[in-house]
Every structure is written in C-alpha cells, then in structure tokens.
Design goal:
About 30% of the residues lie in helices and about 30% in strands. It has about 260 residues and is an alpha+beta fold. The protein folds into two domains: about 70 residues; about 180 residues, Beta Barrel (Porin), CATH 2.40.160.200. Strand 2 and strand 3 form a beta hairpin. It is globular and about 75 Å long. The relative contact order is 0.13.
C-alpha cells in the first residue's frame, strides 16, 4: 500500500459513512409521513445532518489528498526497522491500527490487534480500557515482527518466542504532558519526556541524556510534502545508532500514546 492508496481508502470510508447517514435520514422522513402525530423532526435530524456533513467534508478532503499525492512508481521500500524515519497514519479500529510509512510514501508496517473482537466497536472507551489487549507489529508483507501486550498504560514487548524484550509504562507526571519509562533489562532505561503540552514534540532519551527517538507533529521536510498532504502527520525519527530493542520499546510507547485517539 502507498500513502496515495491510503488516502483513497479513507475517502471511500468517509463517503460510505455519509451515505449511511443520508439513508437513515430518508427512512426517518419516510416513516414520519405516516405517523398520526409528527415528532420534532428538526431535533431528530440534527445529529444525522451534522454527521453526514462532517463525513462528506472528510470525503472531499481525502479525495483531494489522493489526487495531489505523487508516488514514484517502481521504488522499493526498506525493511520496517531499517528506516530511521516513519510517518504515522491511522485506520479505523476499536482501539488502534497504526500504519507506518517510509518517506517515499510506501507502507512498511503496521501496529494492529492480533485478534480484534467486533463487539468492542460499541463498548465505551472507559470500559474497553480495562480489557488487556494483544497487538502485533507487522511488516509490509503481514509477517509478525514482535508482539505487544498492552494492559492500561503498560506494554510488554515480546519476541517471537514470547520472551519479554522490554516493558514500558506511561505516567502523567506534570502539567506539561505525559512521561514514561521503558525498562530494557540490566538496568538500561529509556525515558519519555514531552517537550510540549500539546504533544507536538515528544522525546525518548537514554540514561546519558542523548535522544534515542523523537515524535513530532507540524513538521515535515519539503520534499516529503509531494507525497504526504497532511502537514500535521506524526513523524517518528530514530537515532541511527540506537539498538533494535530500543526501537521496539519506542514503538510500544507510541502504541500506548495513541491508544483511543485519531481513529
């Protein structure tokens, strides 16, 4: 998948939702014609009108992004964790489905639930948050790279033999934002520090104070803008010298951070 195809699929999703709302509107109007006492139609229709307007606007927005996005045909993408820059997008899911694109506009992997349960679509978030979940980090071919066991604000990152690679816990520490700490074993730690209360600049630092990874919004190199048409798309940047274990710890922390948001 490319970012262009993602824009097209998202536009279709918005259009389908808008169409469903219009059909419900038509049914309500048709039924009301046969009722002896007319219900307050205006109050009944307001939510559906607002819903259809918002989703039609989303359809137009993503349709334009699809048309404007330029992808180089025939380019190959690197392996998932060989990329030092990843751009994040979101797909519909009860909790989280995080798509990972490389700067060339091609999908290199995703974070999604291993066994999603349809019933959870209708559960309130405060109830769903109490349910432990298993997510997987998958490469572009759908192969499982690592497993993420998420329980509340804690995530355990497991290897293919179900052994714990690292553990991350997110905590709200100050008015500036959320903090967290990842334990990588043998006393090695990776800390999260928010540089902005609006979550536009999040750093993951080593014990020596050096930045291992950075998550930013509202920043994107000009050359990427030909492919990615959302200037606020989150960009995850890894230090080229960090280990695979540290990269996986950061991805686990990102999964906890974006749980129940933007989708």
């Amino acid at each position: 998948m490319s970012i262009q195809q993602y824009y097209r699929q998202t536009a279709v999703t918005f259009l389908n939702a808008c169409t469903a709302a219009v059909i419900i509107l038509a049914v309500i109007l048709a039924v009301s014609l046969f009722l002896p006492e007319k219900p307050p139609l205006f109050l009944l229709l307001i939510p559906f009108l607002a819903f259809s307007f918002i989703h039609f606007h989303g359809y137009l927005l993503y349709s334009n992004r699809f048309k404007e996005s330029i992808i180089d045909v025939g380019t190959d993408s690197k392996e998932l964790l060989a990329n030092n820059d990843l751009l994040l997008a979101f797909a519909p899911a009860p909790a989280l489905r995080l798509l990972l694109f490389e700067p060339g506009g091609l999908l290199v992997g995703e974070v999604k639930e291993a066994q999603p349960i349809g019933l959870r679509w209708i559960l309130p978030y405060f109830i769903d948050k109490l349910i432990p979940k298993t997510f997987g980090l998958y490469d572009k071919d759908g192969n499982l790279v690592t497993e993420l066991k998420i329980n509340g604000s804690t995530v355990n990152v497991l290897d293919m033999k179900k052994r714990t690679i690292c553990r991350y816990r997110q905590m709200r520490a100050s008015a500036q934002g959320d903090n967290g700490i990842a334990l990588l074993g043998e006393g090695v730690e990776l800390s999260r520090c928010d540089q902005s209360s609006l979550y536009t600049d999040i750093h993951f630092t080593k014990q020596n104070g050096k930045t291992a990874a950075r998550l930013q919004k509202g920043w994107m190199p000009v050359e990427w803008g030909k492919k990615f048409k959302d200037a606020n798309m989150p960009v995850l940047t890894f230090d080229p010298n960090i280990s695979m274990q540290e990269k996986l710890a950061v991805i686990g922390a990102i999964a906890v951070h974006y749980m129940y948001s933007n989708h």
